[in-house]
């Protein structure tokens, strides 16, 4: 047998993000695995803020290009996803600064990712519920909305969201809790208006 027969090939799916990020400095396949793991979270984040497929795709691409270019700056002090979402957040802010207007955020598109095999009536009901929630989300304070987007759209943990927002985990939990209370109140108002 030749010597390379005994070489082990890294099994990326079982490797944690921090080790993959270190490996990605030299191995493109490791970065590709990080991309596969986190592209949906980054895309949903940008979609939630822009409401536009083209802009969300462009910002997602920019986020991963910036992450690849800056991978050596990731030190592992925070979770990789928090570092990545920090890049996404800075790019989003730059994007809207260039536009010089506050976006009207049609968050509906961020949640419209089809679920295979979901019965049509259930899918329609979920879409209606999402629309009500998304309309209410537009009316929240920016801190509460951002915390909810990070935790529910991008599926970050409270710890990861805290790292992105530069707040304590307790502060993020409070923002999410109050944001959910606001959503419930606003959603029930919308429901009452629908039945009047």
Descriptive terms for the model:
disordered C terminus; mainly alpha; 196 residues; globular; 9 helices
Summarize the structure.
With 196 residues, the chain is mostly helical.
Using the CA coordinates, give the radius of gyration: 19 Å
Oligomer: single chain
Strand content: under 5%
Give the biggest sheet: none
| Spatial shape | globular
Number of strands: 0
- State the order of secondary-structure elements, H for helix, E for strand: HHHHHHHHH
Percent helix, as a range, is 55-70%
- Derived from helix and strand composition plus strand pairing, the structural class reads mainly alpha
Cα distance, first to last residue? 79 Å
Q: Please, how many helices?
A: 9
Which spans of ≥5 residues are poorly predicted at pLDDT below 50? 1-9, 189-196
Output mean pLDDT.
Answer: 80
Describe the structure.
- The chain has 196 residues and is an all-alpha fold.
- The protein has helices spanning 17-24, 28-50, 53-69, 80-99, 108-111, 120-137, 142-153, 158-165, 169-195.
- The longest helix has 27 residues, at 169-195.
- The radius of gyration is 19 Å and the shape is globular.
Helices and strands in order, then pairings?
Blueprint: H1 17-24, H2 28-50, H3 53-69, H4 80-99, H5 108-111, H6 120-137, H7 142-153, H8 158-165, H9 169-195
